Amino acid sequence: VQLVESGGGLVQPGGSLKLSCTASGFTFSTYVMKWYRQAPGKEREWVAVIDSAGGITNYAASVKGRFTISRDNAKNTVYLQMNSLKPEDTGMYYCSAPLWGTNYWGQGTQVTVSS
Q: For 89, phi and psi rounded to 5 degrees?
């Protein structure tokens, strides 16, 4: 199983970024996918989840209405569109695949929101 995130960077408050996570090593289209983040000095927190078909999504209260999770099963890729970014959104963002009772993680992509 391999998960590779990309798309992070430095953005000003109010700006947008779109993260991508490309998966391999399992049948991507049959599994739920999740995004998490970890701010410096804080525990990793769940951000968003999407079902296998992409029709059902859910979000943490802190990002609801600003972030959108989506997926393209033909490309084995899950996305996180982040709008109206705030400094408190700064952190390392990870995608996760809960498979066979284990959470698999990518290496993360850094998002920094600062003026």
A: -85, -5
Pairing of strands 9-11, 2-6: unpaired
Give exposure, 6-33, as e/b (b: 16+ Cβ within 10 Å). Answer: ebbeebeeeeebebbbbbeebebeebeb
Q: In the 8-state DSSP scheme, what is residue 87?
A: G
Which helix (DSSP H) or strand (DSSP E) does residue 71 occupy?
strand 67-72
Q: Is 28 strand, coil or helix? A: helix
What averages of pLDDT result for each successive group of 10 residues across the chain (115 residues)? 97 98 96 97 97 96 98 98 97 95 95 97
